[in-house]
Specification:
Elements: E1 21-23, E2 28-30, E3 33-34, H1 35-41, H2 44-53, H3 59-72, H4 77-85, H5 92-103, H6 114-139, H7 153-162, H8 168-181, H9 188-198, H10 203-214, H11 222-230, H12 236-248, H13 266-282, H14 285-299, H15 310-319, H16 327-348
Antiparallel strand pairs: 1-2, 2-3
């Protein structure tokens, strides 16, 4: 094969068809609905229903979906004990990967029909937030919480971490990030899900692999790295001096740029607007000044690079007083819906992924 035919990162390669999500320069659609419309008008559970079942739920369907999700909360004792045994310095994403994999041994759904896959997906939504909450509390010297039936997914996730009814602002903002992060076409972790599914492996194995892919700082871990960058500076002047030096050296700035979007990430605009309101409400405008001191020179240069959703998300979670190690796991608590939707779609029209490679090693040679 000619070296020129190789596409590193499969850039520009169309790897399959999907009716779940459209990622384009001018729009981001979940099954035909714009992300702006969804972010303004529906909650995460409605988005999860849309992705898994194909349509937004009516009132009765939403009630039933929430009831099913409520019923799946609560980790088996062996899973909690395994989380308890993990060293304190193990990253939360590693704990989540292991916790989900182990929970798979207690999967309450036994079948492999499309309906079974959808139920298993709802169960996995509950499992991910339960693992995050259990690990958070154990790290803080507290026992895992039993779920409180009737809470929204965002509120339940916060409750399982903190053990108190979360405030309305925190619930609203977490719910918004869950909506924004829920699905994004054939990104690295979703593609991982589909590749594993294409071998006819099970859903838990596919999700475990996806968590591993999302851990990487070039993918889901970017929100943590973006906040680590912002937290390095005490003043906007410090941030400005750093970013101008970084641009002069052509260094990558975490939280900026996207493989698909060249004119800005639709989700970033939506979240940044709400992040600024939160900062003003809390009197934390210095953090916004630092945020802008890094952003403005990058966006306003001759060939601008725009923030992706991870840049405002990092600061949003920071303003919500959430620890850094929770940022990417919270991403999982959302994106698991998209992963499962893609698993189901792949399973229904499957062909195993088996791309070719371009060999550039030594020519044929004898063993001495």
């Amino acid at each position: 094969m000619s070296p020129e035919l190789a596409k590193p990162g499969l850039e520009g390669i169309v790897a399959g068809n999907t009716d779940i999500c459209c990622v384009d320069q001018g729009k981001l659609l979940y099954r035909g609905y714009t992300i702006a419309d969804l972010a303004e008008k529906v909650c995460f559970e409605e988005v999860a229903h849309l992705l898994l079942y194909g349509e937004l739920p009516n009132k009765a369907e939403l009630t039933e979906f929430r009831k099913t999700l409520d019923g799946f909360h609560g980790l088996p004792k062996p899973v909690i004990e395994a989380i308890r045994a993990m060293p304190a310095d193990v990253p939360m994403m590693d704990v989540l990967r292991t916790g989900v994999s182990m929970a798979g041994h207690f999967d309450p759904i036994k079948g492999t029909s499309v309906d079974d896959f959808k139920k298993r997906a709802v169960w996995l939504i509950a499992v991910t937030s339960d693992v995050v909450g259990a690990r958070f509390r154990l790290l803080n010297g507290k026992e895992p919480m039993s779920p409180m039936p009737g809470l929204s997914h965002a509120a339940q996730t916060l409750y399982m971490c903190h053990g108190v009814d979360p405030d309305e602002t925190s619930v609203r903002l977490l719910d918004l990030t869950l909506v924004l992060y829920a699905e994004h076409e054939f990104n690295a972790s979703t593609f991982t899900t589909r590749v594993i599914c294409s071998t006819t492996s099970d859903m838990v194995s596919a999700i475990t692999g996806a968590i591993g892919a999302l851990k990487g700082p070039l993918h889901g871990g970017a929100n943590e790295r973006a906040m680590e960058l912002l937290s390095r500076f005490k003043t906007p002047e410090e941030a400005s001096a750093w970013v101008n030096n970084a641009l002069a050296k052509k260094e990558k700035v975490m939280g900026f740029g996207h493989r698909v979007y060249k004119n800005g990430d639709h989700r970033a605009h939506i979240l940044e607007r709400e992040m600024r309101k939160l900062a003003e409400q809390k009197g934390r405008m210095n953090e916004i000044a630092i945020y802008d001191a890094i952003k403005d020179p990058i966006v306003n240069k001759e060939r601008p690079i725009y923030p992706n959703v991870d840049y405002p998300c990092g600061l949003t979670y920071y303003l919500m007083d959430l620890p850094l190690d929770l940022y990417t796991p919270l991403f999982v608590c959302s994106r698991i819906t998209g992963w499962c939707a893609h698993y189901i779609e792949q399973s229904q029209d499957n062909r195993i992924y088996r791309p070719l490679s371009n060999y550039v090693g030594p020519t044929e040679r004898p063993v001495p």
